[in-house]
Specification:
Layout lengths: L1 E4 L3 E4 L13 E4 L4 E13 L2 E10 L5
Length: 63
């Protein structure tokens, strides 16, 4: 999946809605404008522990 960024993004616990960010901990991430390849991985080692890992790879820079 790819996405186009227009600047910063907010990372937060998916248990909260986007309009509830002022009441919880979140992380502001400055992204350069451009197109990103998005990769995700879901890991659940047991019934009480889980995480989603997100990797953004800049696709606008030439190799």
């Amino acid at each position: 999946m790819t996405s186009v960024s227009s600047g910063s993004a907010e990372l937060f616990d998916s248990g909260y809605t986007g309009d509830g960010l002022e009441y919880t901990t979140h992380l502001a991430v400055d992204l350069a404008r451009g197109t990103y390849l998005i990769r995700t991985a879901f890991v659940q080692p047991d019934k009480r522990t889980a995480l989603v890992l997100v990797h953004l790879a800049d696709q606008t820079k030439s190799a």
